[in-house]
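Q: Got a minute? One more chain.
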Amino acid sequence: MEKRTITTNQGATVGDDQHSLTAGARGPALLQDVLMIEKLAHFDRERIPERVVHAKGAGAHGYFGVYRSMAEHTKAAFLQDPSARTPVFVRFSLVVGARGSAESVRDPRGFAVKFYTTDGNYDLVGNNLPVFFIRDAVKFPDMVHAFKPAPETNIPVSSSANSRFWDFISLHPESTHMITWLFSDRGTVKSFRTMEGFGVNTYIWVNARGEGVYVKYHWKPAAGVETIDRHEATRLAGEDPDCATRDLYDTIAAGKTVEFELYVQLMSFEDESVLEFDPLDATKTWPEDRYPLVPVGRMVLDRNPENYFAEVEQAAFCPASLVPGVEPSADKLLQGRLFSYADTQRHRLGPNYLQIPVNQPRVAVDNNQRDGAMQSGAGHTGTVNYGLNSLGGGLPVESGEPTFPGRPLEGPQVRQAIPVTNDFQQAGERYRSLSPVDQDHMVDNIVDSLSHAIEPIRERMVGNLAQADAELGRRVAEGLKR
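A: Always. Here it is, folded:
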C-alpha cells in the first residue's frame, strides 16, 4: 500500500498529529501550535448553513442518453445525438425535513438533475409529485414558515400533523390538489429508486427555427413505483431513518444501476387559452389523453459520491441554469424560482459556488465576473475585467445567439390572481382515480393528520375537500368525529 504522510492544509508534513504543543508534558497549550489552531479553526467552520428546504438528500453520478433527436421541438444540444452520453449528477431530497429528519415520513421529495452539457450546465429541478402547494412564488416563504417548526417552540413536528400546516392549506384552495397527492401513499416512500420525478413547472422548448412549444417533464423509474403506508413509514422512521439514502448507496455500491426514463408532454401556445385551467399553473397537471407522454431518453446512475459533503451537500441547483433551446415560461412559481435558487446557493456556498467541482460546468467559462469568497482565479488573468474593452482585444465577445422572441407582453402592472383557477376539479379527479384501497389510505392519512388541527381549521379543510369530491369531504368529516 502506498505510504501517505499527513500534512497541514498548506502541504507541510506533520510529525505528530496526536498531541498538542504545550509548555512541558502537563503545561498549557501554546499559541504557536499552528497545527492545533488550523485543525480547530477548520472544525469550527465545517458546517455551512443548512438549506431552508431540501436540507436532507442523497446523490449519485451517471449519464443521460436521448433515444432520438428532439430537433423538431428543441435545439438543445444534449437532446440531439442518440450516440452521445451527457454526464449527470442527481440529488434526491426531502423538502420540509431538516438534515437529521427521517426519510420515510410524509413529505414531498426533491428530484434534481444536473446535466453537464456541451452548452453548459442544465438543471432540471423538480419533485416526486407532479403539482405543488402554491402557484405564485411570492407565497413560498409563507408556505415554508407554516410547514416548519413553530417560532415559539422550534420543536420539530411531522410535516403536517399540526394546526399551522392545515391553517395554511385550508386558506389556500389551490393546495387541495397537492393534498390528494401528498396524502396518498405517494407521500411516504422508502426508496429514491422507486419514485417518479416531475419538473412540476412549465418550460418552453425552442427549435432552430425559433419556434416554441410548452413542455412538462416526467421521470419514470425503471424499477417501478413503490410506496409504503403511513404505519410502515412510522416504523422505518424509528428503525432506519436513513432508509432511502442507504438503499440508493448500497444498490450502486453492489454494482447495480439506478435508471429512469425521461418523458415530456408538449403543448402548443394556442392551447393555453382553451383549457378549463391555466396550463402554467403549478398546482395543475396536463391530461395525458390530450397531451401524451413522449419518450425522450434514459438516465443511468452508476457511481456513488466519494465525499458526501463535497458532492451532495455542496451540490447546487437552479431552474435558471438553462441551455440554448430551453426557456422559462411565465409560470408564476417558476419565475420566482429563477432567482431564489441561485441566491440561496450564493448565501450557503458563496458567490463562486459554480467553481466547486460538482457544480462546475464541463465547458470553459469566460466572463468578467471577478473576486468574491472562494475565487479560484481559473482563467482570470490579464489587465481587463470589464466590457466593452479594447485593451483585451474586445474579449470575451458575445455569441450572437438570438434570444427566443417569446410571446408579446401586454397589460397593466398589477398584483392579482390568474384569471382561471379551477382549484378543485383536478383534486376530485385525482381522488376518484384511485383504487378503493388507496382511497381508504388517503382518507385515513388526512384524518390522522388533520385531527391535530383545531376545530375551525378542520371545518374549513373539510369544506375544501368536499368541493373537490363530496364523498371525500364526507368521509374525512366522519373520520374526524370518531
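A: The first helix runs from residue 34 to 44.
Q: Perfect, thanks.
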